[in-house]
Design brief:
alpha/beta; Aspartate Aminotransferase, domain 2; 2 domains; four-stranded antiparallel beta sheet; 13 helices; 38% helix; globular; binds pyridoxal-5'-phosphate
């Protein structure tokens, strides 16, 4: 008799998101004439920068020659890419990160999901509410959560940090002991960016409590406000308590190409064990690294041409965010995020539920959003919009919503 993993079995389907797709598909089937504008999912729409395509084309050609062929690469990533990352994303900005502290991977999702392999089951997992569900679900799979309570929408055994308008969607460290602390700033879904003092409080807390900060910087490239940290390693003390996840997905349009990296400082140890070594061991066991062609493409992100093209794409999405912010604010909505982030977190008017407002925008404006309640109980009363759409459609979406309200 084969037994299925009991923790995996605890995970129910993400009913809300499958329910949303179902509702959108059903609506479209009844109203095929309506042109829906989709600002719900967080995928990019701008094509890859030309410098990336050129580098990948050249690398693919290399792979077809005896002299240029690359088989299995180093599990941690090619030195050419790790050196470019260390130099441009950290050292040039005055942040101490060495190439051998960088682990290249196929996605921040894989790394955020895999990192909990390093830690014992008894650790208290601490999550923002609302949250990017990967942190939650992977810990449920790993047996770190108790039972789900449908009445509260929460799992027992986890520590939740409410992110509300009152705390500007950036929670302060808790009074109790938190061991594994997932932080994502700029945040998905709220679009909030944490300032230096807020992040320093977390770093100090983690060092005092022997906790680990698992810092997801997937959206760091969207930070424009002076003084807002783009890396947890800008904060003194972070090298002894933090792991950082970064991705080329939203920065350089790699959602379908797949490349990301994780930084684990040499100093980071718990119980005398180097977490960097542990992760190296884990990666060497569970992956054979990222495609050579893709790593050459990621390297091209750091060339002068690549940087200029990436900057153009980021500016495009920022303009979308501004369009949405201005349009929705003018329509009388309370809008958060969209400044240092591609996400806008919009309060539903007249105390409507997330689901009702989502439905109204779908049916009356033909705009697809994401109900905030899908990200956790404190997401209720909000919807999320993304600025990753096409510019004309984004303008039209803002106009349609304004006309409706
Ligand atoms: N982290 C956050 C907060 C995200 O929102 C996403 C994707 O939407 C990811 C990580 C995944 O990034 P990647 O495409 O590198 O797997």
């Amino acid at each position: 008799m084969t037994h299925v993993d009991p923790y995996f079995r605890k995970l129910t389907g993400n009913y809300l998101f499958s329910e949303i797709s179902r509702q959108v598909a059903q609506f479209q089937a009844i109203h095929p004439e309506k042109r829906l504008i989709r600002l719900g999912i967080g995928d990019v729409t701008r094509p890859l920068p030309a410098a990336v395509v050129e580098a990948m084309t050249a690398a693919a050609a290399e792979q077809g020659t005896p002299a240029g062929f690359h088989g299995y690469g180093p599990e941690q990533g090619y030195p050419f890419l790790r050196e470019a990352i260390a130099l441009h994303d950290y050292q040039d900005r005055g942040i101490h990160v060495d190439p051998d502290e960088i682990f290249v991977s196929d996605g921040a999702k894989s790394d955020c999901g895999g990192i909990c392999d390093l830690f014992a089951v008894g650790n208290t997992v601490t999550l923002c509410d609302p949250v990017y569900s990967v942190y939650l679900d992977t810990n449920v799979m790993a047996g770190r959560a108790g039972e789900f309570d449908p009445a509260t929408g929460r799992w027992s055994g986890l520590l939740y940090l409410p992110c509300t308008a009152e705390n500007d969607f950036v929670p302060a460290p808790p009074a109790e002991q938190a061991d594994l602390i997932y932080l994502c700033f700029p945040a998905n879904p709220t679009g909030a960016a944490a300032n230096r003092a807020q992040l320093q409080a977390w770093v100090d807390y983690a060092n005092r409590h022997d906790s680990i900060l698992l810092f997801d910087g997937a959206y760091e490239a969207f930070v424009t406000t002076p003084g807002v940290p783009r890396s947890i390693f800008e904060l003194p003390g972070a090298r002894t308590c933090a792991i950082e996840f970064r991705s080329f997905s939203k920065t350089a349009g790699f959602t379908g190409t797949r490349c990301a990296y994780t930084v684990i400082p040499r100093e980071l140890e718990r119980e005398g064990v180097s977490l960097r070594r542990l992760w190296a061991r884990r990666q060497a066991t569970k992956t054979n690294g990222v495609c050579y062609v893709v790593q050459r493409g990621a390297q091209a992100v750091y060339t002068p041409a690549g940087r200029a093209q990436v900057a153009e794409n980021l500016a495009y999405y920022r303009r979308n965010a501004q369009t949405l912010r201005a349009g929705l604010t003018q329509a009388g909505l309370t809008v958060y995020g969209g400044v240092d982030s591609p996400y806008l977190w919009v309060k539903t008017p007249k105390k409507q539920t997330s689901q009702d407002f989502f439905r109204l925008l779908l049916e009356e404006a033909g705009v697809v959003t994401t109900p905030g309640s899908g990200f956790g109980p404190h997401g209720e009363g909000y919807i999320r919009l993304t600025s990753f759409g096409e510019a004309g459609e984004t303008q039209e979406a803002a106009a349609r919503i304004a006309a409706l309200l």
